[in-house]
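Many introductory courses stop at the sequence. We go one step further.
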Amino acid sequence: MTKVPRKSSKPLLADPDAPLRSRPRKARDPNQARLPFDRMPERIEPCLALLAPKVPKGDNWTYEIKWDGYRLAIHIEPHRVRLITRGGHDWTHRFPSIAEAAKALGGTMILDGEAVVLDEEGRSDFGALQQALGGRGDTRDAPEAMFFAFDLLYFDGHDLRQMDFVDRRRLLETIVEPRGEGAIRLSETIDGDGDDLFQAAREHGLEGLIAKKADAAYHSGRSGDWVKVKCIKSDSFMIVGYEPSSAARGGIGRLLLAAYKGDDLIYVGSVGTGFSERDAARLRRDLNKLKTTKPAIAARDLGVTWVQPTLIVEIEYRAWTHDGNLRHASYKGLREQQDNAAVYRLE
């Protein structure tokens, strides 16, 4: 008679699906070096690109497309995902598609990049992003927005900011697939001569190019390791007043703009095109809450409603006139306070 086998005293033989567990053969040597792990930072001040008139050239420079949107850092942890703006505000709720895609990546990491909305030609459209978000102060989300990742600052317990940029990029490309689809995509580097690439970007109507030093560590602020060259001039200015109009849709004829020179605001011209009737109506409603009798600039202009210098607007323009005003200015949208946009500074 065949004997029924006894239940094994070795659990690994009895349950092949049981997790493998082991015990150390001997006590750990206290003098043995431990693997260093870095605590994930709550927030990292972003590295900002320095505006330059020409594309830097040389073997030590890499190139990318300049995206026109909102700078974000995506913090991915085991039990939460946070989307942090340049100003340090949590906008996870405003970009739900990006947040869901970040959860799917898993692991622990901090991605640096730009949230954008693309037009039909695949170009970033700041105005479309603003419309999706509903304008300054709105709480609307933008599910159509996507995130272009261009740097990896923290990964799997290690702070990568002291690594060379090219090494951080290699790691990033193992996480975000090149030429991938979805709400999180890779901002790909472009090989070629800087001048030729800039000309191609201009011909395709792109915002511009970003040049980055291949061997540079990640430095917060404008260190010069990253340089931006714009095909289309676009900067942020302060609204200091507006000209009411009974003929213009929305009741605004033009917005008066200012830039900083030292600590003072200096008038740099006005803009009367680029905003829709809906934009103008929203602007007038917001500006009427900021009315003041004391202009923020040294100017006397009858018929102008002066406002406190609070709202920052993104303006596209062709050039500067000889007397220091913007030429062919066009309204692109209000910058969000949380975006911490820098008002243009005159030399």
